[in-house]
Amino acid sequence: xxxxxxxxxxxxxxxxxxxxxxxxxxxxxxxxxxxxxxxxxxxxxxxxxxxxxxxxxxxxxxxxxxxxxxxxxxxxxxxxxxxxxxxxxxxxxxxxxxxxxxxxxxxxxxxxxxxxxxxxxxxxxxxxxxxxxxxxxxxxxxxxxxxxxxxxxxxxxxxxxxxxxxxxxxxxxxxxxxxxxxxxxxxxxxxxxxxxxxxxxxxxxxxxxxxxxxxxxxxxxxxxxxxxxxxxxxxxxxxxxxxxxxxxxxxxxxxxxxxxxxxxxxxxxxxxxxxxxxxxxxxxxxxxx
Length: 289
What we know:
The chain has 2 domains: 6-135, no CATH class; 139-288, Protein Transport Mog1p, Chain A (3-Layer(aba) Sandwich). The chain contains 5 helices and 16 strands. The chain has helices at residues 45-57, 93-109, 196-208, 267-270, 273-285, and strands spanning 28-32, 35-39, 68-75, 78-84, 115-121, 127-131, 139-144, 147-152, 156-160, 163-168, 180-187, 215-226, 229-240, 243-254, 257-266, 287-288. The chain has a 7-stranded antiparallel sheet with strand order 9-10-11-15-14-13-12, sandwiched between helices. A 6-stranded mixed sheet has the order 1-2-3-4-5-6, covered by helices on one side. Strands 7-8-16 form a 3-stranded antiparallel sheet. The radius of gyration is 22 Å and the shape is elongated.
């Protein structure tokens, strides 16, 4: 899968200059012009060259003035990429989530899907924060009455009229309003439907009943059982004003109630592996207490 990475690298205008005089041994050096890359502790010259070539090809330093340094290490099966950032950014959650997406990109494009950690450092290459891939260790659990769902720590949770909550992801670039999850609790009696197959058809009817002039296409319709609950899933695309939005609806049946999870994402967001993984993880984490 090809991933467009150029936009990731605009954030690295926040990289600061490394004070070499105050550093310990950074390792052996491979020079890539504006990128000064060091490697040590298990990382090989081949690893470093592949990383450096990728960074140069991807305009990694765009918006950054002067030369900056990157350090590559390998701890067991984990590749560790260190670079210094300006003070305050190491724990800025919006910045961290972009770095997390970048770690996933490096895993796929450079390190053959191996695990990657990015260490955000000070100007002496001392770690201030460690960022994993796709928020793998940064999840919260939202619990309300008799259900719960996990979501990434950097997502924004707000109560909304008409449904229980809205979760909005900061991993957005041009489609902020398309990148969200909602959860609604529905009494099945109001739908005049009692079977999961009937609920699935209800989702299809909702998906294809457009009132806004958009073109809608159902691309997936499934039913099954997950976490002890029957579920119906419908995925459809909305084409409007030259934009493509994918909507995924998963309806869980629990007795005479059903819980409807809906995810929306613009096409650019969908092209990012981290979003699709988040969507899958959130649907799979839904539990009835």
